[in-house]
What we know:
By secondary structure, this protein is of the alpha+beta class. The chain folds into 2 domains: 30 residues; 127 residues, Immunoglobulins (Immunoglobulin-like), CATH 2.60.40. Strands 1, 2, 3, 4, 5, 6, 7, 8 and 9 form a 9-stranded mixed β-sheet that branches. It is elongated and about 70 Å long. The protein starts with a helix and ends with a strand. The model has no long low-confidence stretch (mean pLDDT 77).
Amino acid sequence: xxxxxxxxxxxxxxxxxxxxxxxxxxxxxxxxxxxxxxxxxxxxxxxxxxxxxxxxxxxxxxxxxxxxxxxxxxxxxxxxxxxxxxxxxxxxxxxxxxxxxxxxxxxxxxxxxxxxxxxxxxxxxxxxxxxxxxxxxxxxxxxxxxxxxxxxxxxxxxxxx
Length: 161
């Protein structure tokens, strides 16, 4: 019986050493995820309660693993008007070896805009507007996490439904 428990402890140790070695070798093979230029924004609703729109961002994943969105922390401003932060929203999967456009929904309460709600609605009614997005997106696959830094200030098309 005593040899059986020694064997179990020995096999567990070998298992954890092998798992650690595999983790080290595969983590060095991971390539960084590459965010592209913001594809556009799409207005969903604009009312007295708030504004809801969608930010479209292409992300290239050159890895053999798919990644899941873990956390979003982005500051968004529209033509110099701070709109607020995008926090973790819906689940987003980034497929392996892909270059897909991912959508992030932004909801802003009118009371958070401090009198600039009409300016935001005017900007979103134009064909294109200046959008600044900065912060980071954290994604993960298995035990690995990657942080995508984003700092973009560009003119984007306002897409219609």
